[in-house]
Amino acid sequence: MDVANGTTAASAPVTNGDREDSGGYKLKFCTVCASNQNRSMEAHLRLSQANYPVISFGTGSLVRLPGPTIHQPNVYPFNKVSYDTMYKELDGKDHRLYTANGLLNMLGRNRQVKWGPERWQDWQIGVPRTEQGKDRGHTGTEGGVVDVVFTCEERCWDAVIDDLLNRGSPLNRPVHVINVDIKDNHEEASIGGRGILDLADSLNAAAKEERDSIGAAAFDMASAASRMSFDERVPEIIGEWQERWPNLPATWTLAWF
Amino acid sequence: MAATPQLSVADQIRQLEGARKLVLKDVSYYPQVIQATLPIIGPSSQVEFRRWGSEFLAEAFATPAVPLSSKETLSLVVLDTLKSLVEDPKQDVLVLRSVIQAAASIYPLAMRWIINNSYDSTTWEKMTAIKTRIRDIWDTAPLTVRICCVKFVQRVVLAHTSSVNPEPRRGDPLDISRNMVPLNHPALDGDQLEAEASGLLDRMLSVLEDDARDVHNPLAGRMQQYVERLVRSRADIFDETGRKRAMIDQASAVEAKRQRTATLSSQPQIEITPLKHGENSLADVFTFTSNEGLRKFSVSETIPAPLAAKISVRTIAQLDTEILQRAIDGVRARLAAFHEAHQQPINPETAPLDVEEDDDDYEPDYYAAEDTEQLMNKLDSSPSDERRDLQAPVLGALALPAFKLPPPPTLDPEQAARVGQGAIARVFGTMQTLEEPTTKKSKAGLNRLAASSYDRDSWITVIARLATRANAGLDEITVKEEDSTLALPTVSMSDSIREMLYAYVLEDFRKRIDVAVTWLSEEWYKERVQQRFASSPGQSHDVPANYEKWTLRLIDAFLPYLHSQDRVLTRFLSELPELTVSILARVNTLCRDPSLVNLALTSLYYLVMFRPPVRNIALDTIQDIWTEYEDARPTAAKYLQRWRPGFVDAAQQATQGTGSTPVGTNGAVVAT
């Protein structure tokens, strides 16, 4: 594990950028926060730097960014305005303010990751994502489904579960939905991103193990119970991870696309 | 997809991935790619290929990018592979997992397929085999497979039961349910499907029950609650399939209430007191409460009508039926008592329509009591304050107050005639829209039933009889009363129908000469009947001579259009029921046109030959022609030579001598 503890500083590979691709099986991830700007995008970047297939969404009704006062937020519709446009607009409005509050820095990062914020509820699950080839972490997400969804706030986790139930799970594809509670600021987002990457690594290791250990070997009905499958191990893995990251309370459920 | 032996497994997988990327870009390639990969991913191939293939299939049948119809077709292709993969007892867990996911997506499609293609039992048998296998491994397979089994079973249960909320507007294409199974489907039995679903659901829930009973489980209590709720809603689903689910809560509430009241007393709690004597309002009759405040409370003044309606509906829906029944009986008893106390002759102004003093006499137009619909109409158009009066009438008698519709404006005879004409015009319209019968049926003559076949002929008969018989015996009465105060319509109904018939025939008299004959035959028949009636003792009617009048009008109208080859005149004359001198005299005038002399004479000669009763007047007419028209003499002389030998000679001599014209005998000759 690159990060052994949430309180320690980030280790070199993550902060410096891309990790070397170790190849092999990879779980497909999805990160979700309210506006698909800060927490989910931080995690998106981290996961993509670790070469995981990853996509990201926001569950809010609109993309809300802080403005000059608390009553004057900058509001954009999902799926229609790119990070780049937002960057340029805010830069033109008040370069100093938006540099100081970190928005330009964040948008500048985001526009390197993908085109613009996407809304979870508008995501057509299972529709091939072949047009987003330039997005970071695109490779592996072409099928339009993921194995694990990370949400960054309980509200978002609820929204995701609600939405999946409403959709009636027409795809019959299981998905683990894990909430990792992260406060919505740059600092916490960065820590949360590392935590999510750590969890992703642990999950992926288990998934790889499942594929390698069962491998071509026949599964024997009688002894099958003794051998734990990936799906079965997810709660255990989260439990272990929670001990390493006590400040990022997690919730988990198995849901269906 | 080249799975050539010299390539490594990884390379081949990479190739397969390339194919997958291709179909993700354009889903229309799915059929080809699936067909091509099926042999590679079959049950005997290496686990890597089986894993990749089953995952690929699960993805293909899950993606919303492929239309359901294509998936349905594709499912027929892959069922064999899926079946052999899932039935392999040594199958890889991940392969199983994906195969079951694919099967879950395919199950509703396969069911729809068998519903619509009941002959294809082999496909359905494959699907059933897959289902059986999944059911068998459900309990023993590793958890990751088991969750997919549960998912598959969920799809089966959904497909086997009636949809909870069949909402066509939602248009859920995956909403394939028991509702779609026809009653007499050879392969599917709706009840069996539902029973199977019930069993599967029981099995799903039993897992929860076992866990919940585990006392060591800290969540046992909460789980038990959920289990009970699930079991209850399961019971509801199977007990009231097809009924509204929204009422479940209410129904159970009523149930609880009923149990409570049942413990108190077996009789529902409601006190029915007899009405007090004297004046009672309608509200009093329906009021059971003794609470004065409630009695005084006027709903109509304080609560808006829509809200009151909502409350009423909800209340009635939740009412204990026994209480409602008792209340209804109570009101009925009160009304009966009331009715007895106020026995009084029925006021015809206010009695309902079907109540009359003398049941035997049916006189619907004598007085006009109003029916509910009229009342409603009146309510709709009356101002609101008036309406409130109607809602709470305080009455001596319980009957509704007398409502009178304003009398209709009096219809003067001319208006009546105009309206009548409109009606006739519509009948004509109907008749004219009918096609001419393609094959001529033999005619039933005067004995035909007027409206037996609804073809053009029978309509003509109806119209002709309307004109001739409808008011036979009525039209001449008024003529006789000299100082009648009744204003006569300028045109009688019969005459207006005759005008229309006349116009109708003339529009195309060559084709419609049979209509004319039918009509005139009716006229003639009616006159004969009337004459016979009039000649009986004690009767002294003038019989209007419509037959001759209209025959002459018709002949006058079409004679100018005849040409030398027309046979319509010959036919008309031979088919008319009665020929008179004046009718034949019109034929006479034809000879003014030299080209028509032959036509006129041939027609007359035909009568001489084939209608002996009119032979004499026909010969008289020919004589007249001979006398009047020099051009016609050669032909006329030829005919006369045979039947009236000596006439021509005598006449020739007479012309040379005195120049007088011989005149035929006057009088009608009946052809029959």
From TrEMBL, chain A:
Its EC number is 3.1.3.16. Belongs to the SSU72 phosphatase family. Component of the cleavage and polyadenylation factor (CPF) complex. The lineage of its organism: Eukaryota, Fungi, Dikarya, Ascomycota, Pezizomycotina. It comes from the Eukaryota. Keywords: Hydrolase, mRNA processing, Nucleus, Protein phosphatase. It is found in: Nucleus. Its main location: nucleus. It holds the Pfam family Ssu72. It catalyses: O-phospho-L-seryl-[protein] + H2O = L-seryl-[protein] + phosphate; O-phospho-L-threonyl-[protein] + H2O = L-threonyl-[protein] + phosphate. It comes from Xylaria multiplex. It is an enzyme of class 3 (hydrolase). This is RNA polymerase II subunit A C-terminal domain phosphatase SSU72. Transmembrane segments: none annotated. One of its GO terms (cellular component) is mRNA cleavage and polyadenylation specificity factor complex. InterPro entries: RNA_pol_II_suA. PANTHER family: RNA POLYMERASE II SUBUNIT A C-TERMINAL DOMAIN PHOSPHATASE (PTHR20383). Gene3D superfamilies: 3.40.50.2300. GO terms for molecular function: RNA polymerase II CTD heptapeptide repeat phosphatase activity. GO terms for biological process: mRNA 3'-end processing. Component of the cleavage and polyadenylation factor (CPF) complex, which plays a key role in polyadenylation-dependent pre-mRNA 3'-end formation and cooperates with cleavage factors including the CFIA complex and NAB4/CFIB. SSU72 is required for 3'-end formation of snoRNAs.
From TrEMBL, chain B:
It holds the Pfam family SYMPK_PTA1_N. The keyword RNA-binding does not apply. Coiled coil: none annotated. Gene3D superfamilies: Leucine-rich Repeat Variant. It is found in: Nucleus. Residues 92-211 form the Symplekin/Pta1 N-terminal domain. This is Symplekin/Pta1 N-terminal domain-containing protein. The lineage of its organism: Eukaryota, Fungi, Dikarya, Ascomycota, Pezizomycotina.
